[in-house]
Amino acid sequence: MRKDLGRIGEDIAERYLLNKNFVILERNFRSKRWGEIDIIARDGETIVFVEVKTRSSNRYGNPYEAVTKYKLKALRNSANYYLFTHNLKCLARIDVISINFNFGKYGINHFTNVDF
């Protein structure tokens, strides 16, 4: 169920970003050492590394609260690895998309430039 909810959240986040005129470059990019980046997109000339957090209730807090300092460090390392391996020298940022999903309805919070 968690993987399904996560995948649903990533699909919702992708549609949201496309509606905001982002260009999706990759989904579920993996670096062996630092983990996965849910969505890599372009916003104008900026590469955006997006962490998507989805929850079906607020029992354990809001989804974005699950993005810890450790997770941000791993995202930063994965983002730098992506930029290096793709020979990209451009502006970059990390965004978090937080989705509360319940009974087929959802709310989205988009936090830009969380940390880089």
CATH fold annotation? Trna Endonuclease, Chain: A, domain 1
Number of H- or I-type helical stretches: 2
- Radius of gyration of CA atoms, rounded to a whole number: 14 Å
Please indicate the percent range of residues in DSSP E strands (runs of 2 or more): 35-45%
> What would CATH call the class?
Alpha Beta
Number of domains: 1
Q: Roughly what percent helix?
A: 25-40%
The major pleated sheet works out as:
5 strands, mixed
Per CATH, the architecture is 3-Layer(aba) Sandwich
> Which sequence of SSEs, written as H and E, runs from N to C?
HEEEHEE
Report the count of strand segments: 5
Which structural category fits the helices and strands? alpha+beta
Strand order of the largest sheet: 1-2-3-4-5
Shape: globular
Low-confidence stretches: none
Molecular structure report:
- With 116 residues, this protein is α+β, with helices and mostly antiparallel strands.
- It has one domain: Trna Endonuclease, Chain: A, domain 1, CATH 3.40.1350.
- Helices cover 30% and strands 40% of the residues.
- It is built from 2 helices and 5 strands, in the order H-E-E-E-H-E-E.
- The longest helix has 18 residues, at 2-19.
- The protein is globular, with a radius of gyration of 14 Å.
- It comes from candidate division WWE3 bacterium RIFCSPLOWO2_01_FULL_41_18.
- InterPro entries: Restrct_endonuc-II-like, tRNA_endonuc-like_dom_sf, UPF0102_YraN-like.
